[in-house]
Amino acid sequence: MAALATAVNLLGVLFLSHAIYSAYEHSLLPSSSYPAPPSALLPQSLDPKINLPIDITLETLFSVLVLCAGVVLSSAELKPIQWNVWAGRLERSAEAREITEVGVGGGNPYAGLDERAGFLDVRAARKGFREWSGEGGNGGKI
User: pTM here?
Assistant: First the structure.
């Protein structure tokens, strides 16, 4: 499939480059026999009033469509966006469950929300205080 996608992309690039070259050459052709007024701000080659022939326009549109098809063919497989599909794949994969880093081929993408990094863990602080005060750290006196 990669060879087909590369061939389609190459074909689209060739058509697009030919359409661009044709549009450039057409813009250099004199469009009228009378000269432009001297007060014109744009040179005649950049005049937006010059219309492209229909074949150049169609070739440009065709090349863009071919390039879009080539990009779609060469793209990677889409990943599931539904939670139940992701969770099902995670449950079936033992090595993915062992990965704890987020975004490294597995793991829980919501682990950062569960950990609440940057917030004080009040329960752990209370437990540590109980252990400290129960072991006679200061004899229970403040």
Answer: 0.49
